Amino acid sequence: MKTAKLITRADEVNVICYSIPGSNDFIMGRTPNGGWVVNTSYGVMIYSTNEMEEVYNLDLIESNLERLSWPA
Question: How far apart are CA 68 and CA 17, in angstroms?
């Protein structure tokens, strides 16, 4: 018999999304191990920081993208 997973407030994730100018893609958040969660036209993708910098022009100083890894 399959048991249901208990989801509590401790499992809450604070999500801040960033739209990507000139694209329908948007950055949805960060994974616990530092990956970038991006909703693309191909579906939800997880990129490393190096992959993100190859695909998108990230301005980590002028933006608040670090907020994506803040705890809820």
Answer: 8
Q: What string of H, E and C letters represents the secondary structure of 10-25? A: HHCCCCCCEECCCCCC
Dist CA 70 CA 38 (whole Å): 17
* Lookup: tokens for 47: 């990129």
pLDDT computed for residue 52 by the predictor: 85
pLDDT at 55: 83
Taking the C-alpha atoms of residue 6 and residue 16, their distance in angstroms, rounded to an integer, is 24
Beta bridge partners of 29: 37
DSSP H stretches of helix in the chain = 49-55
